[in-house]
Structure formats: C-alpha cells, structure tokens
Amino acid sequence: MKSNLEAFELFKGTLPKEVSLIAVSKTNPADVIKELYDAGHRDFGENKVQEVCEKYEHLPKDIQWHFIGHLQRNKVKYIAPFVALIHSVDSERLLVEINKRGEQNDRIIPCLLQLHIAREEHKFGLDQEELSIIIDKVRSGDFPYVRVKGLMGMASNTNDVKKIKVEFQGLKKLYDHYRRSYNDGETTFNTLSMGMTGDYQIAIEAGSNMLRIGSLIFGSRQ
Ligand SMILES: *Cc1c(COP(=O)(O)O)cnc(C)c1O
After folding, report:
1. 24 CA distance to ligand 1 middle (Å)
2. Calculated CA dihedral for residues 160, 123, 135, 144, nearest 10 degrees
3. I need a labelling partner for 50 at 20 to 30 A (CA). Which of 71, 86, 186, 192 fits?
4. What does pTM read for this prediction?
C-alpha cells in the first residue's frame, strides 16, 4: 500500500505548475499532517472550526490553514487570528463578521466567495446577484479587513462528466469576468478554488488554479 506521502507526491507530480494543491486533512490526526509537513508541504484544508483550532495549537505555526467548510458567524472569532484563506464565504453577513474579527486581530483576512454552482445540490453558496452586490461593496471599501482573492465552488456529486463540466465552466466564466474588472493594477483577485478527488481533472481543464484534495491523498474517510 502507498503511504500518504507517496500518494501525495505522486499526485502533485502530475499537476500543472500553476495549480496549487490544498491537502484536505479533515478527520486525519496531527501526525499524518506532520508527515507531509516534514516533506515541505504547507497548505492544509479543514472544514470544522474546533478541529482546525486544535491542529493549529499542536502543529508548526507556519502551516497555512485553509478553511473550506460552512462557517457559522459565531465561530469566525476562533479562526480569525490565524486562518490563511477562508474558501467558503457564502453570505454578506458572514463577510461583515470576518471583517469585524479581522479588525480586532489587526489583520486582513484572505477570503474566497463561494458560488452555488450545483443547482440541485449543496445548501451553501452565493448566487450571481448576491456575488455582484458583495463585490461592489468590497470595491467601495466596505470591508477593509477582508481581501477577496477569488471564487470557490463545488460541482454536483455525480458521474455525469458533462454536467460537472458545465458547472465548472460557468464558475470559470464568472471568475474571468471579475478578474478582468477587479484588478486595478494589483493582481490580488487571482484564485479559483475548484476540484476535489472525484472531479479535479475536469476542474483543471475548466481552468481551476487551486484544488482541494482529501481522499486521494489520505484514503477514504469514515
Ligand atoms: C472534504 C472536502 C474536500 C475534499 O474532498 P475529497 O473528495 O476527499 O478530495 C474538498 N472541498 C470541500 C469543501 C470538502 O469539504
């Protein structure tokens, strides 16, 4: 059987250079993360506030913790001091709270706006109109302690490759639209987080530049 590290390095070797890889370590213990850390990897993804806080406590402080799960407003305060990127901003009220906690911690918190691209599935994510309203407010300076770095989306959980492709391509189109109009000199809006173990190839073809990969590296979760 391949070790996690072997699986990780084999997989990483197949990726185009411009695609970054978040190792989704949720449910895996600290020593499993440490193995990848010791081999030089720094970006890990978690979807539970309590779990990421415990791992942050016990693991090296230069790990970049990506928060990828649904985030409740009353829990933002726990991750605000250290989180590297929140992928899952799915409401304006959540962004207001992140901005407030950023100010309290005297740091600008990097975020992605999560789009609801799988129409019949998944509860969370913004629609296009909500996205447009939020981006306008971000641009007019309403959220000085937040940096919107790009977009995130999860495709339908299906074997229908065509359907997944359409969903990812739709997200890429939105991303390109905002990337063109957003960047006034600075290229801070540069991240498109899409693709997991089951659909990463389709995501890369559609233009993803950040993958969130769990089971392919760590094996299937219980
Ligand atoms: C768990 C999770 C992943 C990784 O899923 P795998 O199928 O194990 O690669 C990616 N994104 C989100 C939001 C997740 O919750």
Report:
1. 6
2. -130
3. 192
4. 0.96
